[in-house]
Amino acid sequence: MKNGNFVLIDEIDLVLDSVLERMNSIFEADSVLVLSEKNINDNVEIIKPHQNFAIISTICPKGNEAKKELSQALKSRFTEIYIEENSDDDIQQIIKFKFEKIKIMPDEYKEKFSNILFDIYKYYNAIEEIGKPMSFRDIDLICEFIENQINKMLNNKNTIDYDNLFSQSIQMTIIEGLYLNESLTPETLKKIKKTIIEKYNLTLDNILNINLIDNEKEFGVNDFILKKSILKEEKKEDNTNLFIFNTKTLKSNLLKILRGMSMKKPILIEGSPGIGKTTIIQNIAKKLNKKIHRVNLSEHTDMIDLIGSQFPTSDSKIKFKWIDGILLNAIKNNDWLIIDEMNLANQSILEGLNNILDYKKSLFIPELNIEIKAKDDFQIFATQNPVNQGGGRKFLPKNFLNRFVKIYLDELNNFDYIDILQNIFIGFNDFIVKLVNFNDFVRGNVFKKKYL
Which residues pair with 387 in a beta bridge? Predict the structure, then answer.
């Protein structure tokens, strides 16, 4: 107001009524702000805005449970503008423009991939059962992934398989995210996945042929190799060696996670309960010598639990000291953070995390009046069980989901369990095979209620 800047109030229909009432005087024609909280010599401070000051606000898209209708009295104080959805022609031009920006890609591939992606966009968004259509963020992610991988391969002087890169970008952005936040049956989702792969001739060589690399300096699979961090202190003995990555399903899940990490964006992982979503992330962190923090969300978790708060000190005098929460601590130390049970979080948590999940990767702390920016190596992993598991889980808003690279982890099969157990318990191969088969029999019959 004082400097004549613009103020953007994003998603104003999520703001508390008390906040809107407090701002009412600013929205009036003769906008003015009375600061009764800032008492100066028993007089209130009255701020009149600069002539260039302006307020622009946006409202939530449909489908957000926290969205509420704004009153007509408040709406009358604004000039309302409705932004229409983009036409198919607009989308096609945008996709072509995005591929044209990848200067290092041959023209014939730009034309080929832009046409295929536009066709996938129309096919995917025409499926009525899918509640979240492809967005501009998905298109950006596809093009950004391809460009990043081309640059990396050129630097390493590797042969570039453009068709494989495009297939991987579609797998990461569309196919892997297909299973998340949907209430469709697994059979229907598998059918849609199969149709997309076969209709557009997507190559699956990267999934079928996975080479695990694990040495003193590097860890990863195929084209997604990460350098290990230098240990700041001597590594303590742990049970990392009991966790193996070389089973078929675990290597596939590892590829999905490392491929997502290559985008330097937050990662949302969904999978059935007990398949090891958190465990695989923790063991990747151990392999790369990264410190990792973990927090479990619930309906009662508040932002102060994540960013911190003022706490009384142990001194004899009454004093308060700021103590960082787990999120702020991870950002400052450039560590990794696992946020478990993401779809149990309340709306205040989702809104509070928006900035750190977005491209700005920053966190504003009003109590300290400071903004903390995360470094490139800071990584957030969010995990959740499917909504149909119940327990208060809910569908996450589409605009919130778009901030993540979305991954659905496959369940382990009998061959995976046998490999894992035989790695831990040497010399019991025959017994382990019988045990796993018996467990599969019990699970297949009891849980399917054949004998209940």
Answer: none
